[in-house]
Design brief:
The complex is a heterotrimer of chains A (405), B (269) and C (299). Chain B is mostly helical. Helix content of chain B is 79%, strand content 0%. In chain B, helix 3 (58-89) packs across helix 10 and helix 4 (95-109) packs across helix 6. In chain C, a hairpin with a 6-residue loop joins strand 1 and strand 2. Chain C is globular, with a radius of gyration of 24 Å. A two-stranded antiparallel ribbon of chain C has the order 1-2. Chain C has 13 helices and 2 strands, in the order ααββααααααααααα. Classes of the chains: A alpha/beta (405), B mainly alpha (269), C mainly alpha (299).
Amino acid sequence: MTITRRKLRPLGALLGVAALALVAACGTSAGSSGTATPGAQGFTPPDIPMQKSLGKMEGKVNILAWPGYAEDGSNDPKVDWVTPFEKQTGCQANVKYFGTSDEAVNLIKTGDYDVVSASGDATLRLIAAGDVAPVNTSLIKDYSEIEPFLKKRAWNSVNGQMYGVPHGWGANLLMYRTDDVKPAPTSWGAVFTDASKYHGKVTAYDSPIYIADAALYLMKTQPDLGIKNPYALDQEQLDAAVSLLKDQRQNISEYWSDYLKEVQAFKTGDSVIGTTWEVIAQVAAGEKAPVKAILPKEGATGWSDTWMISAHAAHPNCAYAWMSYITEPKPQSEVAEYFGEAPANGQACKITGAAFCKAYHVTDQAFSDKIWYWTTPISQCLDGRTNATCTNYGDWTQAWTEVKG
Amino acid sequence: MIDRRSRAALRLLTAVVLVVVYVPLALVVINSFNVDRTFTWPPSGLTLHWWKVAAHSSGARHALLLSVEVALLATAVALLLGILAGLALRRTRFFGRNVVSLLIILPIALPGIVTGIALNNAFRTMLGVELGFLTIVIAHATFCIVTVFNNVQARLQRIGPSLEQASADLGAGSFTTFRLVTFPMLRSALLAGALLAFGLSFDEIVVTTFTAGPQEQTLPIWIFQNLFRPNQAPVVNVVAAVLVLVSAIPIYLAQRLSGDVVSGAAAAH
Amino acid sequence: MSAPTAPAPARAPEPGRASLLGRSEGLRTGLLLLPPMLWLGVAYLAALGALFVTSLWAQNDFTGDIERVWTLDNYRQLWEVPVYRTIAFRTIGIAALVTVIDAVLAFPIALYMAKVASPRGRRLLVIAVLMPLWASYLVKAYAWRGMFSEGGLIDAVGKPFGIQSPGYGLTATTITLAYLWLPYMILPIYAGLERVPDSLFEASGDLGAGSFTTLRRVVLPMAFPAVVAGSIFTFSLSLGDYIAVTIVGGAGQLIGTVVYANVGSANNLPFAAAFATVPVVVMLLYLAAVRRTGALENL
């Protein structure tokens, strides 16, 4: 059959269009990373202007938050500190939850959100990529009341310039069902070396950063591995952690990143023990699940969260208004109690009561420094070693896929 | 024909399959009345509370409205493009015809996640367009074309070219022929295709997740975000139960319309 | 299978018409095809092409930005790290299993609907088969999650028989996927079986074949393209699925979950794109293989 011109025309059009598109793809800029080089604190963040003064409220703000940080009554009508904010400032708040720091980084890059509550394993990545702007702390109403040991730390500032407003901090805990897990566990070993006792019912956090939890356990139980910082793992140490996690995988029911999924799993009994946040334990207890959350004896990884403003914020004034509002004592106390964390603003203790503050070590810097806060692992060892190359987050991500199998 | 024993066996198998198909749906309906928000089995009590909440749920209403709008627009676009493609391909047999057919089928034959991330990448990175209502419509229309196209093609094959040739012989131009002869014959096939396209677009979640802006919540997206929330999960079940019951109407209509085609096709053999 | 179309009639000049469109068949075809092809070409093919191009780029794993440096690293990683191969084969295996299960479940009901049921029964059955499609896919998967959970429906019903729920995992995933795609298999088979003339049954019976033999040697071969057409849906839908897996799959990973995780969480679009080419290639091969059976006309 001879192929005449008219038969080729639709094909030709197709190919032409496809070729054009490919050329266009090559030509479009997809976000350059030329300016920022990762490395210890020695990277240079891109030059993004800091807001000098507050202007008129835009009437809207898009908030990217950890679940439980920006409650607007839709989860529990009694738990709502967003509506007062909306009434006070006229900024309609549109809240989106994310489950892991990776999701947060990805979502901020879309440019659709104004403000994000970033943990330490997301903050530096956002700063380095130019996704967040430096914060003018003089525009934050109660900034002076924030605990000093949270300011100008390695994860929320570069060269003394703050890139966010501290929100709160806490540890990852071990949660278990009191009716299925006896005797009460005291060690992370319950989900690692002794996990086979709860075969098929163990749960763990679904993020590469969880490798640090395994590394922390090894740090305490296998000192000859030489792990000094669970985020500074050379290849051999990473392999050991991965091996531990692969053993744990045999006993896993499911990994969770959606906190409500974990609540449901504990309620039905599909999971009986695993990593958690305090808020999950409290919500589960509210759903009449017999659970308890403890801080095991080896210590824990944790998170110190910072509100950051997007470099592409469409509503920067409302964003600053939110950051101001959420760090005032009353909202701080509400978040801290609902989520179960130490608020950054020590004045919140006056509202929550001294017992709460004591339990969460709100002003206790020594305790706070014992927690291994989520940090992005980089090739330059975070424990100061110069004779070794540490694995970076890309290696951890790949290792995590291997762990899950 | 098929003997009595085989017929009985078929009847039994059909009943079994139908039971299997409807048990989870029955569970959904029961859970919409469940007192317990995390749906442990058996339900500890029944309540109408969630139906009342659902009736007032503005989130669900907005999502439903948005889904309907998207589906209508996507179906309209798919209709237009499907008719054009179907008309174009019917009489010519050329090498490109198979390629074109393949291209039309591709959006629905390739896994949704591939389509989703491809379109997301194209919109955001390549074109720098913000995701929003139109991007969803474009995505949905793309994989809905095939349903219209197939129906048009099947119908055109069945009716053959003779009537249109007669119309041309009587002096009617192309557009007139299409308007007065072809289109009326295509109508029921178009409607069946449109209904299927509407259904596809309405329930689509995967591609939509990647092509919807943060403000746009179609019904599936709303369901996905509320599926695990203790206060909303039962409302989601209510919405799903309502959808199933209400869907009987358009399906019945589609059956009536294409039912004529089906019996006609059988007779033509 | 499609009936061959009649060749275009010899071009006799139409009386008294100067319509350009009327005169040139090729031009008309081209113009008619232009909008849909432009749409599909631009919206779809170009997007796929751009995605493929992205898979050849690298990602800065600290900032998450895409670096437009040409590299085959993503594909190398796919090839060298064994877990991705495991996941790919596992997904293909599950997709195949789901397809087979659906074909086996769908055939009897489709046959009943096409040949045994009364016209009214047929209509009711079609409605009954189509209605579940409108209950959101998510809600159905979630219902199965409830059924598989500890103390859920399967445990409750199976207790007297000593059957325990398999819990969340690959078994649950297979069952759920098979359930979700069943209507997509029933409909094409039903349409295909309807096209099988009744007279063939009678002829086969006259020649002395029992029902089962008739089914096996006459009906099945004729319905095969329709089965394959349905299988395109079930196979493709299973290959790319990540939602049902997340809901009932426990800790299991399929291609869809890895791609989704890399796009969403890991910000590694280049790698996700590279891994996404696996199901694309599989489907293209599958489509090419089934084209000869004529299944594509039956969709």
